[in-house]
Specification:
By secondary structure, this protein is an alpha+beta fold. The chain contains 15 helices and 16 strands.
Length: 493
């Protein structure tokens, strides 16, 4: 080979190493990259107002319908049992909590929750190495998060309930990370197929960024205030040859249990880096991202909404070049706000107000970059009727057997209007997005500006009669959800 050719190859190789954007542009997508859920947790001392915050985009393949449900408390008589999907049984509680339920019929691992105590639950697929899982009575999978929403009064209690269920039944999916928060603290629960798991508390002054691979790294099992884990977590990893204690390296959960393809996935790395980039951390794609970090400024819900809408604008990962070459949804591959996104939310969890008022989930249907975030208070007792299939049975048993036509487009469910609008936008994204962004930000600004005044009204009503306050919250949410839907329908006529 000629010297000039060798020099060219060396320069090219160096460029690929030092330019993260180029390093990942033509990466082969791992199958998990079609399920690009994305989550951020922020401790109360890291936010602008002292609230714990959760930001989440739910990504699922195909046109997965989302029902928005306000589930009431349900009483059960003594001796009642809850039957899991694969046949396992456990005693039912006397009555369940109220909760907001974002339900994707037929999907095992996609639903999110905000219950009456402010416990917020969402999840990300995180494939593991496990190939010989221990399951008892068929294991537990989808139903796990619903049980936590029904029974837990705090994030820590939810983790403890989950730990007990995993120890008892074993977990059915390859691997998954649950983000579980309340108005006081945020937890990350990483589960491996079978009976191994670890949960870590996010420090109050830090934030955590999660794509679709495990982020929990070094584990201190003696620190029971900040870690909860299966007792043989490290011993099992040693037994399987996933960790060598004589290597001189500290035990790392993600390195021991995480699948190599998910840890090295360019889609995962790119999306996580996109959030770090917006947070001005100075990290690049070649860095090892931390479990959590202290942001350089106080975080607001606006910051998190911006991240949930991100397509790599301003970086070399943006193949659309600020939409001048086409839609980012067609050109940019795996993104935080991606083609498979079916909803996004930012939960604002405040401990100085009653949970019904202080815990609010700002929800955006379909693609958050083209829809406003509307507030849904924990005290909400009914959803706007167009946001759930008419006559749809609202129970976990029905979730497993949805009607055969559940994914057929129709004019009765708001979801399909949002889908049509996203398709409409995608046809000429660059020319349309600036006008749409102006409109949705105007809507959000009005809602943000009204928040303090409307919550003062709710609080006054709550002090007199909580039921009256919940009715007012419900009507407020339904009003703005209806307005958002009408604006969308108007734009696709």
């Amino acid at each position: 080979m000629k010297t000039s050719a060798k020099l060219f190859l060396r320069c090219l190789f160096a460029l690929l190493l030092i330019t993260p954007a180029l390093y990942s542009q033509n990466a082969v997508h791992h199958p998990t990259e079609s399920l690009d859920c994305f989550t951020i947790l922020v401790g109360k001392d890291a936010t602008i107002d002292g609230s714990v915050m959760v930001a989440h985009n739910e990504d699922d393949y195909g046109k997965q319908l989302v029902n928005w449900i306000a589930q009431p408390q349900i009483p059960y008589h003594e001796g009642s049992e809850l039957v899991l999907k694969n046949g396992g049984r456990l005693a039912q509680v006397a009555f369940t909590n109220r909760f907001i339920w974002l339900e994707l019929p037929g999907m095992d691992f996609a639903d999110s929750y905000l219950n009456e105590y402010g416990v917020t639950i969402c999840s990300n697929s995180c494939p593991s190495k496990e190939d010989n899982p221990e399951l008892t009575n068929g294991g537990i999978g989808y139903r796990l998060r619903g049980i936590l929403a029904e029974r837990a009064q705090s994030a820590r209690e939810a983790v403890e309930i989950a730990a007990d269920l995993i120890n008892r039944f074993g977990y059915t999916a390859s691997g998954r990370t649950y983000s579980i928060s309340d108005a006081n603290e945020a937890w990350v629960l990483a589960i491996v197929q079978g009976k191994h798991f670890v949960a870590q508390r996010v420090p109050d002054d830090q934030m955590m960024i999660l794509a679709n691979h495990y982020t929990i790294d070094q584990v201190d099992l003696s620190d029971t205030q900040n870690f909860i884990a299966s007792p043989d977590l490290i011993d099992y990893a040693i037994k399987r040859g996933w960790y060598d204690p004589t290597s001189g390296h500290l035990f790392s959960f993600r390195e021991a249990y995480g699948s190599r393809s998910s840890l090295k996935s360019h889609g995962n790395i790119n999306r996580a880096w996109g959030a770090y980039y917006l947070m001005n951390t100075g990290l690049n794609l070649m860095d090892r991202f931390p479990f959590s970090f202290k942001p350089g400024f106080k975080i607001s819900k606006r910051h998190l909404m911006r991240i949930l809408r991100y397509h790599y604008e301003g970086t070399k990962l943006d193949r659309s070049e600020q939409y001048t070459k086409g839609s980012p949804y067609e050109l940019n591959g795996s993104m935080i706000c991606g083609k498979a996104t079916v909803y996004g939310f930012v939960a604002e969890l405040r401990n100085w107000l009653p949970a019904d008022i202080g815990c609010v989930m700002w929800l955006s249907p379909q693609w958050p970059d083209i829809q406003p975030f509307i507030p849904y208070y924990a005290g909400t007792t009914q959803m706007h009727p167009d946001y759930c299939r008419p006559g749809y049975p609202k129970s976990f048993d029905d979730h497993y057997n949805p009607p055969e036509d559940i994914h057929d487009p129709n004019d009765q469910h708001a979801f399909w209007a949002f889908v049509r609008f996203s398709e409409h936008m995608n046809q000429n994204y660059g020319k349309k997005i600036h006008r749409v962004t102006k409109q949705l930000l105007s809507t959000e600004r009005k809602l943000f500006n009204r928040q303090k005044r409307i919550e003062t009204k709710f609080l006054k009503a709550y002090e007199e009669d909580p039921e009256i306050a919940r009715k007012e919250m419900t009507e407020y949410t339904k009003l703005h959800a209806g307005k958002s839907l009408k604006k969308t329908q108007k734009q696709i006529k």
